[in-house]
Amino acid sequence: MHRSSSRPQLDLSKAEIQGNFEEKYPTILLPNQSHDISHLALDIGGSLIKLVYFSRHRDQSTYDKRMINVNNRLGFPPNGNRRSYPILGGRLHFVKFETSKINECLDFINSKQLHCGEGESRYSDATTDSNAIIKATGGGAHKFADLFKERLGLSLDKEDEMNCLVAGANFLLKAIRREAFTHMEGQKEFVQIDTNDLFPYLLVNIGSGVSMIKVDGDGKYERVNGTNVGGGTYWGLGRLLTKCER
Hints:
Blueprint: E1 16-18, E2 27-30, E3 40-44, E4 48-56, H1 60-74, E5 90-98, H2 102-111, E6 133-137, H3 140-143, H4 145-152, E7 155-158, H5 161-175, E8 181-184, E9 187-190, E10 201-206, E11 210-217, E12 220-227, H6 231-242
Parallel strand pairs: 3-6, 6-7
Antiparallel strand pairs: 1-2, 2-5, 3-4, 4-5, 8-9, 10-11, 11-12
GO biological process, one term: coenzyme A biosynthetic process
GO molecular function, one term: ATP binding
Protein name: Pantothenate kinase
């Protein structure tokens, strides 16, 4: 989410995947994040909605409340929703929903107050910023734009999906330790990545369709092959043939 080009940025130094790598929704720890930021983005595909958002460390909330109480007792005026003291650390969270159950996604955003500009770091009197914009990719960014505006007062700003895909892959390979691995016969083996010798590489994206992309650098890529048959197609065929719901 953004409101100006000068908004604080993520500090990716020493970023790493937090917790068990087999967890359903692992997070990315950002131990050196010093700015209070508001980040929420969506990929609304034909089968799944993928959502990523930023939050501060959980124990920082207690400190926030203590600082508010101190300021109130001393009679200091509120300085808006921005803080004058540093926020140490945070994490990126990743959640997914079936696109057919988009109302569950909207309820989740509302319950976390992610549409109010500061996510979980907002206070109880948070209100939606009528100018709030969420970056989104996928066909659903057009299909559900009116629904997001009606339910949450948010505008969806569609980004080029291929650009975001390549930028995201480069981010993970460069910034996140132990992100690349091989998986054979149930065994995972991590691969050491030399960020100075990363390119070129072949990126295969499997969604509702499949795209094979040759990545030659930041912002430099070419789709070399692909097919319309992907995960969404196999999922649908599997449900029709087996009568399974999941």
